[in-house]
Amino acid sequence: MDALTIAQHYFDAWNHHDAASIVAAFAEGGTYSDPTTGGPLSAEAIAGYATGLWASFPDLAFEIVSAGLAGNGVVAAQWIMRGTNRGSVLGLPPTENRVELPGADFIRVSDGAICSVKGYFDTKLFVEQLGLQAIVQPYTVGPYTFGTAVSVKTGKPTRPGAFSITSLHVRSEQEVDYVRDTSRQIALEMLEMPGFISWVGVRLGDMMMTVTAWEQEEHIRLFMRNATHRRAMKDAFDPGVAASPMTSVWLPDRISAMVRCSICDQLAHYDRTEGRCVCGAQLPEPLAYW
């Protein structure tokens, strides 16, 4: 069987969502890699990767735009991957967006089997087609560390009476995934808890931090009984997760929140002036404190 036919059978297996046939197309020790795999995959890891992609895109299919021999048993194939995101990607809920992603595979064939597949595509375009943010920034510049953040808000205008702050120094991407996924689950459960106002999760380099606003300190004590949180805290303090965990409760000494008058453009304390500006105009409703 020639290299082009082997490559076509390989793509057919992808389009038929047949993980066993994909693996069978590879020679012993054969590898697959693309910008999202974190390095070469082999054997059952290839099947697991394909199965995960189909779970994220149940209607996934590849259209082969062109394919030809590039010399030394290498097939160069241009393709367009199409599919609708109906399963989790990068630990995030599905967006239901449809992607139409161009890319290319370089498939090296020897003795009737695939030795390696190296795939290339625009990861920024992939993320943007999913409806996600693609942020390009440095890790550090001098004393500055850059990162990402996410928040969950109830929208309550209540003045916070206490803050709980947790920070973990993670040592691997596996720990990052665990802390991120567990924190998001806890944040969603917080929405049903008494006294919860809002939650912010931040990652800066190897530090992952959460800051949660509560109506009163006693609500934090109630939150400590949450089963998901208790399990996460056990994991954090037992060997296995995080190099340096820290938890704390902060009580605000002063919170000064103001709103700007839509008539005279001056700032005013809404609660001190009974909602009236010094110019006599009714002030806009104050935004949430946190």
Describe the main β-sheet briefly: 6 strands, mixed
Which stretches of 5+ consecutive residues score pLDDT under 50?
Answer: none
Q: Largest sheet, order of strands side by side?
A: 2-1-6-5-4-3
In CATH, the architecture of the largest domain is: Roll
Structural class: alpha+beta
CATH topology of the largest domain: Nuclear Transport Factor 2, Chain: A
Mean pLDDT: 93
Give the radius of gyration.
26 Å
Count of DSSP helices?
Answer: 7
Total number of beta strands: 15
Quick one: overall form? elongated
* Total domain units: 3
What's the CATH class of the largest domain, please?
Alpha Beta
Q: Report the helical percentage.
A: 25-40%
- Beta-strand percentage? 25-35%
Q: What's the N-to-C terminus distance?
A: 65 Å
Order of helices and strands: HHEEHEEEEHEEEEHEEHHEEE
Question: Can you offer a commentary on this structure?
Answer:
The protein is an alpha+beta fold. It is 26% helix and 35% strand. The chain has seven helices and 15 strands. A six-stranded mixed beta sheet has the order 2-1-6-5-4-3. A hairpin with a 2-residue loop joins β11 and β12. The longest helix is centred in the middle third of the chain and has 18 residues, at 173-190. The protein is elongated.
